[in-house]
């Protein structure tokens, strides 16, 4: 079995620092905690026979209002009449477990523990094994060839949430519920032959394979190993291993969770076929297919044809696909230590997770278009509950785990997100604090801040740049209780232009630091050591796969959106983007505005802002760019 090159630090050892990303995290936490226990559990109570509702009237009394009437319930995909009801419970449990693990907030844990306790009560009322917000008949209908909307998918979300409540929040009852559910599924799937099981697996099973692998990793119960084998989607996996394209025009939101299942299956069983499946999938989904500027290869949940995206500029990438591809990239980064996977994660973080969450309300945009005249359609707090609503609260509860990874030699800073880490190296207690300088460098999502106020009010401090800096600037501060030798690795991102500047305690590090590499600093570290890193960037363009003259603008890792509701021809030299865009509104009070530009030398002006800052405006990401034709003698003379 191949070795896994890197591993995560246990949740709780990494903390997000105060700043814009911490605010996004807190916005998500507030929403997670705002959902009431009754509404989260309502459909489970209903299915278990523990709750019913007959309206405002009765045989002996009648009221005109209700403290718990339908106007206060969860609707959309969580309505009692929707076949997918119950999926949000699993997402919620995952988010709550992760939030608790990072913050040690006992109110979060108490609320989540109560929800698990009530789910256990529903399971007992239903016979001790089956647990869902819908009846067992959905499974039987599906087995009999009748359409039902993705019951496996919904069960997977619940199992995943319970698994994370056990693993991250130390809730033993959650594991007991999982084991009871596994008993039901082991018995139910035991009645099918291989062909019948293969037919069932063609009907969006979500990440069922992943949850059985997670459970087997905990229990080592042979029955749970059998569930892994039964939920092995051989038709899909074997086609990938033969090198066939079984992605184009297929449902990406079905396939990606299945591949995450294969990844976990390899980790807990050592069967190398599963790792081969994962690597074959990545080649087909990313390497051979190509990606848009946001990192996506899907539109409207379907994989686009390899290298032919121009005809598919529809509603855009789906958030579940974005989030699950980030999860897969992180798995491959752990396995291989190759920074190209961390580059991919970063691209999809800025231009997916952040771009599909409303910065003020915290709500989700199911899709993210990149075609001409796109608009984000925002969900509501309780009236929609799309699948992406669920992955939104998971994604914004868990982006600290990707910042630092460890190997036998030390620690790698893999994502440049302000944060702190505490860990042990031998007998030493080590701390790293990753700080971002928002005055001498740019800082995405930055707003009013004390550092900026000092900059604009004090006159006895060094002057900052007259114009917007062309780099990201970081300080890494080391604390330790004794001198300790270890390797500190720094990822040089794919978007870096020019030579990064790295110094240790003021002494510049020599060498050529190339994009998509890990710079290694091996030394004996002392308390108070400081590493300074400057990552230069430029305004760049990226072509749309399949249409090389259709270009998107990027400012470092950040996709720019032109605030216009139609396709507009731009004129200039794509090799010199400054002939097309110039800085605009580069500073606002105490912070720099990264990604703010406007057109120059065009028939009509267009303003550009980061895609993640767009809220309700119409916007366009890809523009046709050509050289202006000179038609008059006066133009030629000019």
Any descriptors?
seven-stranded antiparallel β-sheet; alpha+beta; eight-stranded mixed β-sheet; 18 helices; disordered C terminus; 638 residues; globular; single chain
Distance between the termini: 68 Å
Helix content: 25-40%
Distinct helical segment count: 18
Rounded Rg: 26 Å
Low-confidence stretches: 57-65, 630-638
What is the structural class? Answer: alpha+beta
Strand content: 15-25%
Strand count: 26
Cα shape? globular
- Which sheet architecture does the biggest sheet show? 8 strands, mixed
Mean pLDDT across all amino acids? 94
Describe it for me?
With about 650 residues, this protein is of the alpha+beta class. Helix content is about 35%, strand content about 20%. It has 18 helices and 26 strands. Strand 3 (about 300) and strand 4 form a beta hairpin. The longest helix has 20 residues, at about 105-125. The protein is globular. Mean pLDDT is about 95; it is low at about 55-65 and about 630-638.
Question: What's the SSE blueprint?
Answer:
Elements: E1 7-8, E2 14-16, H1 20-34, H2 37-48, H3 87-103, H4 106-125, H5 137-143, H6 151-169, H7 172-189, H8 194-201, H9 208-219, H10 222-230, H11 234-241, H12 252-269, H13 272-287, E3 298-299, E4 302-303, E5 317-318, H14 319-336, H15 339-353, E6 367-368, H16 387-395, E7 404-407, E8 410-413, E9 419-425, E10 428-436, H17 450-457, E11 471-480, E12 484-492, E13 501-504, E14 507-508, E15 517-525, E16 530-536, E17 539-544, E18 547-555, E19 558-562, E20 570-571, E21 581-583, E22 587-588, E23 591-592, E24 597-599, E25 607-610, E26 622-626, H18 633-637
Parallel strand pairs: 8-12, 20-26
Antiparallel strand pairs: 1-7, 2-9, 3-4, 5-6, 7-8, 9-10, 10-11, 11-16, 12-15, 13-14, 13-16, 17-18, 18-19, 18-26, 19-25, 21-24, 22-23, 24-25
